[in-house]
Amino acid sequence: MRDLPRLRRLVWAAAPRLLLVSLLLTLSSSLLPVAQLYIGKLIVDQVVALVAGGTAIAALIQQLIPLVSLGFGLMVGQAILQQLDSYTTQILGDRFLLYANTQLLNQAVRLDLAHYESSEFHDILNRAQQSGSQYPLRVLRTLTSLLGQTARFVGLLALLLRFSPLVILLLLISAIPTFWVGVRFSDRRFWMTRRQTSSRRLADYFGEVLTEPQYVKEVRLFNLGDHLAKQYQDIREAFNQESQLLARRQAIAQSSIELVAAVGFYGAYALVLWQVIQGAVTIGDLTLYVGSFQQAQSAGAAMLLSIANIYEFNLYVSQYFEFLDLTPKVVSPPRPKAFPTPLREGLVMENVYFTYPGAKAPTLKNISLTVGPRECIALVGLNGSGKTTLLKLLTRLYDIDRGRIAVDDISLSAFRLSDLRRNIGVLFQDFARYALSVGDNIGFGNLPMRQQTPQIQQAAVDAGADSVIEALDQGYQTILGKMFSGGVDLSGGQWQKVGLARAFMSQAQILILDEPTAAVDAIAEHDLFQRFRQLTQGKMTFLVSHRFSTVRMADRIVVLDQGQIIEMGTHEQLMAESGRYAEMFRLQAASYTTESKSGKV
Ligand SMILES: Nc1ncnc2c1ncn2[C@@H]1O[C@H](COP(=O)(O)OP(=O)(O)OP(=O)(O)O)[C@@H](O)[C@H]1O
């Protein structure tokens, strides 16, 4: 229950006035039935007295009119209050849902890339998504109804106290099993659901593979459909069986409770009947008793069930807060320094070491590198040698373990993250393909300039994407991808040109291009690299490529091997050294020449 104050603050922040209105409505609509019961008793007593006294029908009716009207008014009032209550509850629910989900998304953006690479994190995120969307509000709704139920229960107890304290004792005793069963099974269901998180994510994943566009082709071509659907079904089936078992046990326990409640009711009924026979209470009292006892019994049971529910829902809410409590490690400093513009000295890496979270050995070891403000560096190396990792460190997607990375002698961690990233234009190998307009796909590279058409068009021209876009019916307004109505899909190379245009959109002083032309055709690549110098002029550029014709254009080439720099220099220098670079270059060149000689090209 320790999350309750926090939860109240959360809902209060989402819709403060509505929360108050909802509370008042619940309270008043809960108390009206008690008043109705009492009016009912007064009517019965008056009828019995009038009939016994031999009052004429017309006079009898006249005397009853005020009480009956009051009863009618209360009933109508109750109906209106109830509707108002459900109306405000609905609005409060909608507002809160939006607020809670926005909080969740804001937190998701704040967290580190490293978080997203841990399966525990995805379990936490998944649980927060499941819980955050409904449980915080459920706790509050249950709390408000608990308040109403308690008010009604106390009102009914006051009415019942007229008969005998024993009646109240019977009522309370018969309610205890409800509470016990409620709490016990809530707890079991919670832990069952929590235990299932990883398997549920796996089942969801199978569902995704069977329905997401990127898997459609392979699922058909490798006939994976039935196999994956079966895996999905098996997991969900196991969940169902577990849930069924729990539901069966709960139903049995619940039936026993009903038995206890019936014994309680009839025990107390016999007590009051005895009092009527003795003439100690009136017939009106008897009707009041029957109504009050039944209502009190259900209000009492509802109250205890609410408490059990609050306990259960609060367990789920704690999962939502568990996610909100995660803290990013890569953060801006409290007093950030301004990013130097223009760059004067350039970038320095000194004895940098980096280990991926959970990895046993460092991926990058003792990296030392100095790059001039307008220099173009090509990173070369076998798959897995650490090229992309090095670029991720420059953008602070991860922080280094040891060593130093500085720009104009200011450590990267001294800049505000957003400032640092604004100064670096990036195209990663696995760049994003937004199912939005072409304009957005390019404009996202520089959000404040998203609406500036000339800039977007220039970036498209620079990346060679302009001809692709001109061929689209709606030009820059065309929605890309097939996810939304009217969307048009592009080829891999065309997408890459759009991604490259996004990197060019930024006014950054540092440009990172991780295999920017891996998917584009030879002509487009040639065209791009003809203009490469001009496009990257005045910028510090990092280029990763496996194509040596591209690499040789760089001012300097850095060769990585198993996370270490093994060679560094211009193309000519490295060729003269006849080291690893020269070996890789010659191998690639030879494969081209043999193939052309044998007529394959
Ligand atoms: N997110 C990650 N978590 C843990 N290890 C990772 C992660 N990303 C990469 N690695 C490991 O780090 C090493 C270097 O990977 P990196 O992506 O930097 O290589 P690369 O030189 O860019 O390779 P490629 O030429 O295939 O793109 C690899 O051994 C890889 O398995």
As a percent range, the share of helical residues equals 55-70%
Largest sheet report: 6 strands, mixed
Rg (CA only): 36 Å
Estimate what percentage of residues fall within beta strands.
Answer: 5-15%
Q: Name the bound molecules.
A: adenosine-5'-triphosphate
Spans of 5+ residues with little confidence (pLDDT < 50)? none
- The total beta strand count reads 10
What number is the mean pLDDT? Answer: 87
Supply the helix-strand structural class. Answer: alpha/beta
Q: How far is the first residue's CA from the last residue's CA?
A: 72 Å
Could you say which overall geometry the principal axes of the C-alpha atoms support? elongated
List the total number of helices.
21
Strand order, main sheet: write it out.
6-7-8-3-9-10
Domain ABC transmembrane type-1: 20-299
Membrane topology: Multi-pass membrane protein
Transmembrane segments: 47-76, 166-185
Main location: membrane
Give a concise summary.
With 601 residues, the chain is an alpha/beta fold. The chain has helices at residues 4-14, 16-52, 57-110, 113-116, 119-132, 135-160, 165-195, 197-211, 213-221, 225-277, 283-324, 387-394, 417-422, 438-443, 453-463, 466-470, 492-505, 522-535, 548-551, 571-577, 580-597; strands spanning 347-354, 364-371, 376-381, 402-407, 410-411, 424-427, 510-514, 540-544, 556-561, 564-569.
Supply database-style keywords.
single chain; 6-stranded mixed sheet; 10 strands; binds adenosine-5'-triphosphate; 601 residues; alpha/beta; 4-stranded antiparallel sheet
